[in-house]
Structure prediction request, 1485 residues.
Amino acid sequence: MKRILVVLLCLGLLLTYSLGTRAKEDVTAGPNYSEETQECLDCHKSYTPGIVEDWLKSRHARTTPEMGLGKSALEKRISSDTIPQNLLSVAVGCYECHTLNPSPHQDNFEHFGYQVNVIVSPNDCKTCHSAEAEQYSDSKKAHALDILQKNPVYNSLVETITSLKEVNDNKIVHLKASDNAKWESCYACHGTRINFRGSKQVSTTLGDIDVPDLDNWPNQGVGRVNPDGSQGACTACHPRHSFSIEIARKPHTCAQCHLEPDVPGYNVYKESKHGNIFDSKKQEWNWGNVPWKVGKDFQAPTCASCHNSLLVTPDEEEIVSRTHDFSKRLWVRILGAIYSHPQPKSGKTYEIKNKDGLSLPTTFTGELASEYLIDEKEQTFRQTEMKKVCQTCHGTSWVGGHFAKFNNTIVESDKMVLAATQLLLEAWNMGLADQSNPFDEALEQKWIAQWLFYANSVRYASAMSGPDYAAFKLGWWELSKNLQEMHDLIELKGK
Amino acid sequence: MKRILVVLLCLGLLLTYSLGTRAKEDVTAGPNYSEETQECLDCHKSYTPGIVEDWLKSRHARTTPEMGLGKSALEKRISSDTIPQNLLSVAVGCYECHTLNPSPHQDNFEHFGYQVNVIVSPNDCKTCHSAEAEQYSDSKKAHALDILQKNPVYNSLVETITSLKEVNDNKIVHLKASDNAKWESCYACHGTRINFRGSKQVSTTLGDIDVPDLDNWPNQGVGRVNPDGSQGACTACHPRHSFSIEIARKPHTCAQCHLEPDVPGYNVYKESKHGNIFDSKKQEWNWGNVPWKVGKDFQAPTCASCHNSLLVTPDEEEIVSRTHDFSKRLWVRILGAIYSHPQPKSGKTYEIKNKDGLSLPTTFTGELASEYLIDEKEQTFRQTEMKKVCQTCHGTSWVGGHFAKFNNTIVESDKMVLAATQLLLEAWNMGLADQSNPFDEALEQKWIAQWLFYANSVRYASAMSGPDYAAFKLGWWELSKNLQEMHDLIELKGK
Amino acid sequence: MKRILVVLLCLGLLLTYSLGTRAKEDVTAGPNYSEETQECLDCHKSYTPGIVEDWLKSRHARTTPEMGLGKSALEKRISSDTIPQNLLSVAVGCYECHTLNPSPHQDNFEHFGYQVNVIVSPNDCKTCHSAEAEQYSDSKKAHALDILQKNPVYNSLVETITSLKEVNDNKIVHLKASDNAKWESCYACHGTRINFRGSKQVSTTLGDIDVPDLDNWPNQGVGRVNPDGSQGACTACHPRHSFSIEIARKPHTCAQCHLEPDVPGYNVYKESKHGNIFDSKKQEWNWGNVPWKVGKDFQAPTCASCHNSLLVTPDEEEIVSRTHDFSKRLWVRILGAIYSHPQPKSGKTYEIKNKDGLSLPTTFTGELASEYLIDEKEQTFRQTEMKKVCQTCHGTSWVGGHFAKFNNTIVESDKMVLAATQLLLEAWNMGLADQSNPFDEALEQKWIAQWLFYANSVRYASAMSGPDYAAFKLGWWELSKNLQEMHDLIELKGK
Prediction:
């Protein structure tokens, strides 16, 4: 009797299991590929099998825009209301993406009978993902290259660091920084300007073929200026041909650029309790679900959950909406400038002018260029947005205590920078350093470290609760030691 | 014929599988929640869904103290012999934990009809986990805040590092360190003193509610002083509402505080062969098993296996017993003080008095305050305990060779600190530095780095076999370079 | 009707599943163990259960050389054509490996009736893995200890760093470096010389037993000199008794030695897009497949894929062949020496003589010792091999752009070292530093950091696209700052 029950139970289970399996198989079988994409695949599976397999495993290979349009508002992964007819009912394949908008694409070229763009740009992805492309285009990320190049202050910092140096007559001579040095350091993250230099012939296993000759390529920096004039590289976070939402949601992606010593976001996260839980339990979480359910899909936040993902409760109530402008939940900017300050109104921070006439959000001693920065109302709004995320796991009092501490840390870290600035001013006044380039002498480099490394680090550590980065690792220890060393160096030089 | 065999085999398999599944389902279905806990869940699943889901996935949600008491001695996860009757047969839920021992809890408050404690303290967890709470209460971890605050030497180090600095008349002026700066740096790991300041009103989506107004909150430092007077935070290692043994056993947990440059335990582990195997194979290990079977459940140790877990052989023979006093298998203390020394007898290290009258385990030149430190017999006993763990995978000769090297490293690293101390003494004697605060000048900071960073690092690297931390990364390279730089700085200052 | 279909489907599925399970079980049931190995296991499962379990999970426990010989050329994991008869049809067990070639093994000893070698050396593994042992024996890794010890320049660097220092009369005195200090730092990776000192008695739970007394043991450095005279330790990458190809293919293994600041290979990889994808998706990859299929088995490379694994396309076309000489796909050497240079012809780099008569691949100012280095033709060949790997995922133009940048970075980083060398020469000429030991003074240490840390880092960052290591983290920022600090130190000393 019991045995029969068990067998029946088994069959029920089996049924469930096999139905589940069937459903999954249907998805895997997937939609039709266009004839053109099939032709790309047939050839490239021999020549670049890695990306073909990558794409075959992607959602783009298993869905069509039409299927995407049919999803509910919360489940939708595409944001455009209408999609060109020819793309609607085939998989999102090689041909579909690499041939869009050919006319602005300077990198468009004839390739075995097709007119192909080398680079798929945000303007191309916009065909289906219009909201994301729009949000991104206004962000600091989209303008990341211009932020360095068009702002004389940062441009000078970049040039000073990356210029080749020679020693002549016991003096250090700064030569011009090469495109190469900037490309592989600062611009690797900020993006390069991809220039079309003409056509060139390359030798391949298929014989010589003509391809566009591109400058500063390859590059996937977030502010890349593409050959079609658009800004950004979606592949910076959704890499290569898998376009994976899982990868973008995992902190390793952000870690490529948000690393100590200058932007220790990932390092602080790793050391926080959130990072501890992530590292211990990530294998059990649902990384691909849209919308992303707090508690159900994941039990501790990653960079994406706090900063840009659409989050819902297990009952599908929306907590915060999706954004691809990554400062939309940030009220204060704690990195990259001499002092912290309210977020800039525009992503084009090189358009700021402070009282000294420089494109910086504060003066040398910390006075805000307020007209270029968001006002208190907007700051409160954004802080409230962020608090909504925190409060899905933490009580109101907890969150309040956390932010009160953070706000105080911002004030104290800025004061520790001001002290360093005063020492530098003194050295300049005494002729112990030369103000003409504020970035090239040892004392000035210590001053840079005070704000760009240590004050940043303490603020990140406070914001995300990674204590070592507020203590011995780039934190208060370094803030205090560095100040002392600046003082001693001035004393030794002045003897 | 073969086919019939296969089908029979299938059915057998299916039977096993479905029985396995049933058993698992029974656990998942789990015990009854108390009515009170159910009421908490009904409301909080809307307001803090993250922690509700976290708890629902926890063992606490799927078991009762009664079920725990029924386990064999080795399998038991609770150590109290008797549990209050009202807790026995319901899941370990919100109400059960957050309402224990209300009278000492200054943070107890009326919350929608219940008297709730904000913080569940070690004294509350002790209800079921008495052995663990007892062991912990004697450990250095439980006294981690007092160790900094009640010892004038360490208190002065903390104040010197975290005090706000101003520049006045080209001099650095140390202001008083704020609670805030200490809270987010040193005390983030060591724990804060949570003071009850009274009641306050907070705005929530349910309207304004009254909650306790707590100082230095939130904090999960290991030596937190709780509003009920108890010391410690079990959540430091068993975070939030999953109370996961898996998370506690994974090294990312320890990594939150045991990080370079001052306590590079995690960094050295990551770089060791143990860490290499952990990172490569952890996904296949059984992280939740109690008792934990060497070789069966895991093939390389983590922090927990060596330092505190109950370990058994695959045949369930006990190798070492569980302890929540994390130095019970440690004979020598290799971090945090100027010189290495035998482990202190008591976790209250601020009660030590050395020959100079300071609360340090050695004098300035390394003489031991022996009466406060464990004797040779106890050292041998603890080393033998640790060796038992090593010898589950390594032969006697291997283990002997390893510890001989480690013991020699301890001696040599202490000598490298002594050399730095002698240079500092010289500088003080020559008036090139001011002894009144031994922690604030550049030369003194180099001396601190010699023992707190580099000598520590070399010892950790030796103890756990992570060679880079004995070499170029905070190791012998830095020990030697730092000494040379101290020498040069004295020379330049003395010119 | 549909229901019947489903049930039939279920049974089909079940059949497949159960057959798959049976097949797997057959492997698990595995081959016979030799009687001797069985005896080892019977005893050691009580005394060192960890390694017994480790071995039981290994491929060696589940296969025989005979089974290995039967595989196709691409699938083969052993490379010897003939295997001794007595080993052919039993599992590769304790007895089989630990008793090979007893006569050269100074560490051979009588152990409960068997003559056992403590250390299984590359010469023993060669019995089945002859091609790998041959390749390895010519590599720099095999000679890693000699490279430090037999080259007076590097030997002096090691001694200077690891020597114990005393302060006498305000001067730093370098004592002789202990074997111990070298063993746990430089030689931990490079390997120690394991000397046989005779026999010794150790106390075990089985009573006192006699075992070989070995010097500098334990050690798993890649250039270990074994008691049988062979060089290397296969366990450096295939650790302990699992001999796992999965572990060897995962970058954590290489990370044990290839770490910042001196060899930041792992750090740069972690930060690269390859590392980002690895960290995000590794749990889905097939880590044990031989041959390893690009795209199918993994979607982003690890250290092993680029540097030594046999790679094939999904259609099993060979891309690159397996090698255990890890520089066979490397044309330029970017680490460890003052300037970058073409790879040495021989792994015995201590045999090089440059124009100054030193065993270095370049002179002090960068002139190549060309006759000891591979020629342009070989450089082109190796670069082409590496490009084959890149081109499985990246187009010709992409790969060309990447390598052009890398080649330029090599030139620029060498120039930044030359500038530092010129400052050092000046200091020596002016008597501000003493050339007799070029490694012990603060200024000289800065010069070392310029080439050993920062120039290395920039080149790695360029080669593997981890931008922070070309920028603020040990990159151009440090190259420029360090140069400036050398300049300032000379100025201060010369005042």
Q: What stands out?
A: Chain C touches chain A through 70 residues (CB under 8 Å). Residues 327 and 363 of chain C are 22 Å apart (CA to CA).
